Amino acid sequence: MAAHSAVLSVSRIINPIWGRHLGNTVKVFGTTLTSHRNKTLHVSDNIPPPAKYGGRHTVTLIPGDGIGPELLSHVVEVFRFSCVPVDFEVVHVNSALEAEDDIDNAITAIRRNGVALKGNIETKHTMPPSMKSRNNLLRTSLDLYANVMHCQSLPGVQTRHRNIDIMIIRENTEGEYSSLEHESVSGVVECLKIITRSNSLRIAEYAFQLAREKGRRRVTAVHKANIMKLGDGLFLQCCREVASGYPDITFDSMIVDNTTMQLVSKPQQFDVMVMPNLYGNVVSNVCAGLVGGPGLVPGANYGRDYAVFETATRNTGKSVAGKNIANPTAMLLASCMMLDHLKLYNYANLIRNAVLTTMNETRLHTADLGGQGTTSEVVQSIMRIIQSKGQLTADI
Amino acid sequence: PAGALRSTPSSTPGTTRGMVQDPTQFDVLVMPNLYGDILSDLCAGLIGGLGVTPSGNIGANGVAIFESVHGTAPDIAGLDLANPTALLLSGVMMLRHMGLHQYAAKIQTACFDTIKEKKVLTKDLGGNSKCSEFTTEICRRVQDLA
Predict the structure, then answer these.
(1) Is A293 on the interface with B (CB under 8 A)?
(2) CATH code 3.30.70.20 for A160-291
(3) Model confidence, pTM
(4) Contact residues, chain B, for A262 at CB < 8 Å
(5) Which of chain B's residues have a Cβ under 8 Å away from the Cβ of A161?
(6) Where do the Isopropylmalate dehydrogenase-like domain residues begin and end (chain A) (predicted)?
């Protein structure tokens, strides 16, 4: 499966011993599952190898809008400094144009390279409704059906709640984001929320596979099936069906409004959560807020053939763009998830370690965390730590 | 005056995140049904839960129903253990809706003071008083405020 190795690695830093143990477990499960199931989602054998020539990978880079370009330039800077064997193919997407040529180019580039790192592309409210969100278009065209976010309390960050460790798996292609709206009568708009059995089964499988591989005990499905009896009811039913195939994992469900209430009062009760698109959006933002804000959490979008990495809460951050105050942590951690996906584990751990050390020990916090550090100060500190590890680096 | 009001559209996920990080930045929020469902429970969680959260449903021509939003709690029904705060504060909302502001203010102050002093609290708020004892305490304060 595309996800497991990338997601494992954060826990490796937090607890290296446990992480290593899990790494071996993953290899065992990989072979067991393939032999048990005919229709397996563990297609790590079937995913075409990422673009690699002369030992170097090529990754599509989409700068996006707002803080995207500057954060991604820092990623490129850190990669170059650490001599990471990754070359970036930069594709610009102009959010002000109605034509879809730009985004089509980006999609083609991702199909070619297999992996991408992106900033958020702004969806202007002033554009006509017929113009679809570029980010959404990218996700659906590449069928990146699973959005995975790992929210963990970080030692160096002050938050109201501690010891949070939640994995959120959000269906990424349908639901309320199907962009199917119409106005049959003036002043009355109907919006279609699409829930399909196949996509619900697929995302539930993904969640349970990931839970098993990461050694997690419990999966909670978040829904509103008491009101949307057919739509969310179908989703819930699919989750239950998949759960029956994983007797070692506890499955329960919770209505979305109660979920948000529980999240702000007792977030430690949650382990792995799976849900349709909109609830996923809401719940991931709540969780990002709980662990310290949008500047800290990386996110990943996985499909059968492609993987795209970005910050978890997908902000353009227009208000802080160009001021050197944005928090580079989320984007750098996302790039580490990408390195794990490319199986460049050493580089991933090196950079990730440096990022977390800077945040936890040196306390160079940016404004969003209540500090006064600038983006470049944080990045410099990260590079100094990388250099101190004794590996080959370029000049600062 | 209406000119002094500022309205800012805010996306739901951004709002939920903002609510978790700094709820004091928000004043009045208006939204469609589903988002309201989610956000109202989220905010209830921030202030202490459904046991203390009042609500009102306002219709045309001033027709309104005020209610607490917690469940029926069959496990503690009839045992004099429940926390009446949510329903009481819903009653206060009702009095304001009817224009009986003085009565509303008195009862609200009495209720808040009782909770603040922490001497007579129901179980869900960390005390071990009965519902009737909590109510009596509030009534005593209302009398003192008269």
Answers:
(1) yes
(2) no
(3) 0.82
(4) 45
(5) none
(6) 58-382
